[in-house]
Amino acid sequence: MLRQLLPRCGRALRAPAIRPSQLSLAVQVPRWYSIKPEAASAAKPLGLDPSKLSITKTTSPKTPKDPATLVFGREFTDHMLTMEWTKTDGWLAPTIQPYQNLSLDPATCVFHYAFECFEGMKAYKDKNGNIRLFRPDKNMERFNKSAARIALPTFDPAALIELIAKFTKLEERFIPNERGYSLYLRPTLIGTQKTLGVNPPGSALLYVIASPVGPYYPTGFKAVSLEATDYAVRAWPGGVGDKKLGANYAPCIVPQMEAASRGFQQNLWLFGPEEYVTEVGTMNLFVAMKDKETGQKELITAPLDGTILEGVTRDSILSLAREKLAPDGWKISERKLTMRDLYEASLDGRMIEVFGAGTAAVVSPVRKISWKGKPVDCGLNDNEESGEIALRMKNWIEARQYGDEEHEWSYVC
Ligand SMILES: Cc1ncc(COP(=O)(O)O)c(C=O)c1O
């Protein structure tokens, strides 16, 4: 049967050749079922357009809480910024509306296949009362990379920054005036298509909520102790640990609880048989140590090889270190470092200090790391809660966040 059909199919598939002289005629002949040009342009998905923003203010504004009682991520402002996307229409008009629950069908794809990514960034109030975002372009770049990796729509970064700036301005009364306080912003993107089919979502919702936060260390630095985690892996090359997907975070909670049960505040995530140090909890890791041969001081952080998140604070610290530490003879390295390297530096007295780096705390000094039951001392004296580099980095970064130093990293809303 197949053999009988083949010759005929072959003939049928051979389309008559169109000579160049016939081409213009061939494309000009309208076909009744073809898409009309105007229909095609209407179907072109729209980009995110801040000029279409509509604002509906709450009729029951909250009284901001006493700043001293703020707990990270518990209190939210009066409003939320939202924008919907559909595959056919693109980004619909953004809105700012009263903070409210979402209503989603139980079959919505975000609940089943984790179509979710997010960002974490902060707005600061400067001494003149201006509201400033810190390097929002970096967050938007990372947000787009996360979205693209899980088939969610991307957006024009400048348009979303403009919308976030308007939203933040609207909520400015929630940012306490005192130094150390800020407004934590949580841009979130979810797939909203109602389907159990495992497919790219045909609709999505991007929203931004805001939470006033206090200083991470209200009474000064408090150095933490880490457990080097070798029984669970947070991220691997070719995986998605370098994206800010919600799905990367829940699996880290059980190892975190295990570390806590043994008295450690965070996990130090190792990777591979070499036991490369990658990240600490939800922060990037920096190690300052002296070179074994030359004695040169080196500030080291893991390279962007897919096993770590591309932290905005990490990038800021590297840039500040190249600007301010390198002229004093420091070597600044993005390179792999094993747990054994750390252990040996500590034993040899070459360890200067270790700290985590992230938006929440800026820097988080480390006192010791437990590695296979051995305590690895990270260079702090018993009476110290921070090394000098972590402290200087915090001050340099905060000067730019709070606008004490005018800098291109600071975006005035
Ligand atoms: C896994 C992970 N690594 C590092 C960071 C630090 O990134 P950033 O400095 O952008 O806050 C975060 C924080 O969001 C994180 O979740």
Automatic annotation (TrEMBL):
GO cellular component, one term: mitochondrion
Keyword Transferase in annotation: yes
Enzyme class: transferase
UniProt GO MF annotations: L-isoleucine-2-oxoglutarate transaminase activity; L-leucine-2-oxoglutarate transaminase activity; L-valine-2-oxoglutarate transaminase activity
SUPFAM superfamilies per record: D-aminoacid aminotransferase-like PLP-dependent enzymes
Enzyme Commission code: 2.6.1.42
One Pfam family linked to the record: Aminotran_4
Record's catalysed reaction(s): L-leucine + 2-oxoglutarate = 4-methyl-2-oxopentanoate + L-glutamate; L-valine + 2-oxoglutarate = 3-methyl-2-oxobutanoate + L-glutamate; L-isoleucine + 2-oxoglutarate = (S)-3-methyl-2-oxopentanoate + L-glutamate
InterPro entries in UniProt: Aminotrans_IV (IPR001544), Aminotrans_IV_CS (IPR018300), Aminotransferase-like (IPR036038), B_amino_transII (IPR005786), BCAT-like_C (IPR043132), BCAT-like_N (IPR043131), BCAT_family (IPR033939)
Keyword line: Amino-acid biosynthesis, Aminotransferase, Branched-chain amino acid biosynthesis, Pyridoxal phosphate, Transferase
Sites bearing N6-(pyridoxal phosphate)lysine, chain numbering: K244
GO biological process annotation, one example: L-leucine biosynthetic process
Reported cofactor(s): pyridoxal 5'-phosphate
Family from the record: Belongs to the class-IV pyridoxal-phosphate-dependent aminotransferase family.
NCBIfam families the UniProt entry points to: ilvE_II, PRK13357.1
Protein name in the entry: Branched-chain-amino-acid aminotransferase
Organism: Monosporascus ibericus
